[in-house]
Specification:
The structure holds two protein chains of two kinds. By secondary structure, chain A is α+β, with helices and mostly antiparallel strands. In chain A, about 35% of the residues lie in helices and about 30% in strands. By secondary structure, chain B is an alpha+beta fold. The chains are: A alpha+beta, B alpha+beta. At the A-B interface, helix 1 and helix 5 of A face helix 15, helix 16 and helix 17 of B.
Chain lengths: ~250, ~600
């Protein structure tokens, strides 16, 4: 089941946090919670499933958003976004050191929220990956998907959905497009399969054909040169034959 | 005949030594001075002795003066007096009476002040003797009497008393005060009765004899003089003997004993000749000329006249020599004086130079002080400046802080406004007025974004408008109609906030209009909204067009939005036009001030 990406809002201005919440829900995201302080946020982080955190740098109390950013860096491997009015340079300098995945400037609008989430996932993915991929992707900066923990953030038209790696069944190339087939739905990317293959976790996904990549866990059976994922038949081409069946023999 | 002064002065204090002896002493003293490393006191003594014994008076004087300067150096008044005494003596010998007297007076004054009575008495004696030589007998008696007074009352010294009596007597005798003279000579003889000094006895008797002869007591006088000669013979005083002898001769001659008289005088003359007493030779020969003349023996008279002439000439010569010497010494003195004056002039010049130098140094000091002061002032000013700079800096920082705080609040408040509208919009859902709130929200967001751009660019009042347009239109497209392709042809341009805000609102309305109303159905193929902005430095041109259905006056129009556009165009003195063929085509021209 693809889940909605769950976002924690840390903002002490109630009107703003409510506004952000409405906008995020309107975009197709889920709000994991609204915290008005660092301590509240930490409680929610420990209790709820949180994919992305939006943090206002300026918070009431003795701990500000930067402290929370550092905490997330140290304890939760998830992207976070700093919300700032960009006024105090000293504060911004401190914020930079924590290396947030993105900044969202006040005053914001729907588009700037969307862009900051895109940026956050792209940067997060970049941080997790190695430099080679970044260099290759430099030509095509448009974010396709991002992997956070055991999930992929796949884009549905204009917003992301979180899909657990085990829920991704197979990827199929359709000319210049790549379609992610998950348990519940399909995500179409205007990127060739070859490029996407490089970003997938190797241990779980296997190239079986020029046009197919399968989730090894999802394979339900095989007959001859054909793999079955539920009722879907996926051909295994000769160059991949040995590799594929060695893998299954090992299992 | 009585005009011929025969006198013998007893310079008892200065013991006359022979020339050769003096020479020896001088040489040994010079030797001592050259070779030994003498203490300054010893040097003084040597200088004094040299002054005393030196055969060349001129050089002697120099040593005397050296003695004086040494004494001055030692700050020893007594020694100064001694040196002055020496100077007086030598100057006397050189014939410099005035200098001699001055030195002697000064010396005596010092002795008096120091209460060195014996020295004072000797000094008085010296001065008195000098007055006798100068034939100022009254002064001579005066000073000698002072000496005598000392010897009689203060330092009881019978010997010197008697000698002084003799000197006073001689002074009176020469002054023709014969009674006083004989009194003093007699006093000397009385005193000598206990002293029994041959010299005193001899001189006193001899001179008393001369007095008696002058008083007409010929026999007594002759007898006394002969007794004196007898005594002096033993002492070997040829000078006095010859004088007494001649005096006896003269007296005898005057009393008719011509041959004995002439004989006596001739004997005296021989004595004088053998002892080179030229003065006496001259006087005695003159006597003989007189004798022979009165006897009518002109041949002899002529002979002695010649003799007289010879000695006279020689004496004149001597006098001349003395005078020359005197002149020489005067010249020396003048020379030294001129040297001194030259030195003092040099000194003066030196003083001037040192004054100038002192002045220069003073000026330098003053300038330094001024410079220092100036520097201090400058430092103070600099310190003040630093303080003021710090104050200004602090104020600037405060200002910057306030400005940032203000910007922060402006942005936060604008954010709050748009959030409020968004929250209200959320509540309204499909309420008919929702669309109006929505438009309002976007207008506020358009303005908010201007502020965001404005304050993120170093607090200038200029907006990078190209970036602004990109963000504004992207948000609109994202919010209103994601199917529309946005084509931007915008040149980078910096606009002031006064122009940027109205222009931003105009663009917001025009683009929103296009996005909302231009494309009716989803069936539209490649819907495009195109925005271009360019400038020719005079005017700014904005074009917004779409490839939609065109404006339907009744339906697809936001009346308020268009009204807003026109108002804003007026505000910025722009001109706007619209064509409605194959989509709406807006053209706006704005003058750039």
């Amino acid at each position: 089941m693809p889940n909605k990406v769950s976002i924690l809002i840390v903002e002490d201005e109630t009107l703003l946090s409510q506004d952000i919440s409405i906008r995020l829900v309107g975009m197709g995201y889920q709000v994991a919670g609204i915290a008005s302080s660092v301590d509240d946020a930490i409680v929610i982080l420990n209790r709820e499933i949180v994919d992305i955190v939006m943090i206002d740098i300026m918070l009431k109390g003795d701990k500000d958003g930067i402290v929370l950013g550092q905490f997330i860096k140290d304890h939760h491997k998830i992207p976070f976004i700093f919300l700032t009015a960009h006024s105090d340079t000293a504060l911004v300098d401190r914020a930079k050191k924590v290396k947030p995945c993105a900044y969202m400037l006040k005053p914001f609008n729907d588009n700037s929220i969307r862009v900051s989430i895109d940026m956050a996932l792209a940067n997060f993915e970049r941080e997790q990956s190695d430099d080679e991929i970044i260099a290759e992707e430099a030509s095509n900066k448009k974010i396709n998907f991002a992997q956070v923990k055991d999930s992929l953030f796949l884009k549905k038209t204009d917003f992301f959905q979180r899909v657990n790696l085990k829920d991704i069944l197979w990827l199929e190339a359709e000319s210049n497009y790549t379609v992610f087939h998950t348990l519940s739905e399909k995500f179409t990317y205007s990127t060739v399969l070859k490029k996407i293959e490089k970003k997938l976790p190797e241990f779980q996904f296997l190239r079986v054909h020029r046009s197919y990549i399968v989730n090894i866990q999802s394979v339900t059976g095989f007959v001859g040169n054909t793999l079955y994922i539920n009722k879907k038949m996926i051909p295994v081409s000769k160059p991949h034959h040995n590799e594929v069946f060695n893998c299954f023999n090992a299992i | 005949m009585s005009k011929i002064p025969l006198f013998c002065i007893l310079l008892v204090i200065s013991i006359q030594c022979s020339y050769s002896q003096n020479k020896q002493i001088t040489d040994s003293l010079l030797n001592l001075l050259e070779k030994s490393n003498l203490e300054i006191e010893e040097q003084f003594e040597v200088y004094c002795d040299l002054a005393h014994y030196h055969t060349d008076f001129q050089e002697g004087l120099q040593y005397a003066e050296r003695a004086l300067s040494t004494a001055v150096q030692l700050v020893d008044s007594f020694k100064i007096a001694k040196a002055l005494e020496g100077i007086g003596l030598i100057n006397r010998l050189l014939g410099n009476k005035k200098i001699s007297f001055n030195a002697a007076f000064e010396a005596s004054n010092i002795y008096k002040r120091l209460n060195k009575v014996p020295y004072l008495a000797a000094s008085y004696t010296q001065i008195g003797s000098n007055y006798i030589v100068d034939k100022e007998y009254t002064s001579a008696v005066d000073y000698l009497s002072r000496a005598l007074d000392i010897y009689q009352n203060v330092v009881i010294d019978s010997f010197r008393q008697s000698l002084t009596h003799i000197n006073i007597g001689e002074a009176y005798r020469l002054a023709h005060k014969l009674d006083s003279s004989s009194l003093h000579f007699s006093q000397a003889l009385v005193l000598n009765e206990s002293l029994k000094d041959d010299a005193v006895e001899g001189y006193a008797l001899g001179n008393l004899g001369m007095v008696h002869v002058a008083q007409g007591k010929f026999d007594q006088g002759i007898e006394e003089m002969q007794r004196a000669i007898g005594i002096l013979n033993e002492l070997g005083d040829v000078y006095s003997i010859s004088i007494y002898e001649a005096e006896i001769g003269k007296t005898l001659f005057q009393h008719g004993q011509y041959q004995v008289g002439i004989h006596k005088v001739k004997a005296a003359m021989e004595l004088a000749e053998s002892n080179h007493l030229k003065e006496q030779m001259r006087d005695f020969s003159e006597m003989l000329v007189d004798f022979y003349q009165s006897m009518g023996d002109y041949e002899r008279a002529f002979y002695y006249q010649q003799q007289y002439q010879v000695y006279q000439d020689s004496l004149v010569n001597k006098e001349n020599i003395q005078k020359t010497e005197q002149l020489k010494s005067q010249y020396e003195i003048d020379k030294r004086e001129s040297e001194i004056s030259f030195l003092s002039k040099t000194n003066e010049a030196g003083k001037k130079i040192s004054y100038a130098l002192a002045g220069g140094v003073g000026l330098f000091v003053v300038l330094s002080a001024l410079l220092y002061h100036h520097n201090r002032q400058k430092q103070k000013a600099n310190a003040q400046l630093v303080v003021q700079k710090q104050i200004v800096k602090n104020r600037e920082e405060e200002k910057g802080l306030l400005l940032r705080e203000l910007n922060h609040r402006v942005k936060n408040n604008l954010q709050m406004v748009s959030s409020l509208m968004n929250l209200q919009l959320h509540k309204l859902k499909d309420h008919p007025s929702a669309e109006m709130i929505r438009s309002g929200k976007f207008r506020v967001e358009a303005m908010s974004m201007i502020h965001q751009k404005l304050y993120s660019q170093d607090h200038t009042t200029q907006i990078a408008f190209k970036e602004y347009i990109e963000e504004l239109t992207q948000n609109l497209v994202y919010s209103y109609n994601q199917g529309v392709r946005l084509v931007l042809k915008v040149v980078p341009v910096q606009l002031s906030i006064d122009l940027a805000i109205p222009l931003a609102l105009i663009i917001n309305e025009l683009v929103t209009n296009a996005l909302k109303y231009a494309f009716d159905s989803a069936a539209e193929v490649d819907p495009i909204v195109e925005l271009s902005l360019y400038s020719d430095n005079q005017e700014l041109y904005l074009k917004v067009n779409d490839n939609g259905a065109g404006m339907n006056e009744k339906e697809n129009i936001d009346a308020f939005g268009l009204q807003l556009v026109h108002s804003l165009v007026d505000q910025i003195d722009g001109e706007i036009s619209m064509t409605n063929e194959k989509g709406v085509f807006w053209t706006l021209k704005v003058p750039l001030v």
